[in-house]
Amino acid sequence: MGRHSLPDDSAPGGTGARTRARRRTVAISTALVLAVTAGTVAALRGDLLSFDGSCDGETMPLRVVASPDIAPALRIVAGRARADGVRTDGRCLDVRVTARPGYEVAGELSRRGARPGYEVWLPDSSVWVERVLASGTGPSLGDGGNVASSPLALATVPSAAEKLGWPRRTYTWTELTKAAGKADLRLGAADPARSATGVLALARIGASAEKRDPSSDTLVAATAKLLAGHAADGDEEVLATLPRADSGAEKGDPRGNPALIVSEQAAHAHNQGGHLGPDLRLFYPEDGSALLDYPYTLVGEDTLTAGQTRAATRFMTLLGTGDSLEVLREHGFRTGGGPPEPGVVRAAGARAPQPYAATPAEPPTAEEVRATLSLWTITVQSARLTTVVDASDSMSAPVPGRNGQTRMDVTKASLLQALATFTPKDEIGLWEFARQLDGDRDYRRLVGTERLGERTAGGATHRDRLAAAFTGLAPVPDGPTGLYDTVLAVYRDANASYAKDRFNAVVLLTDGANQDPGSISRKALVEELRELADPQRPVPLIAIAVGPDADKRSCEQIAAATGGSAHQVVDPAEIHQVLLKAIMSAGSR
Question: Which terminus of the chain is more exposed, N or C, with fewer CB under 10 A?
Answer without folding.
Answer: C
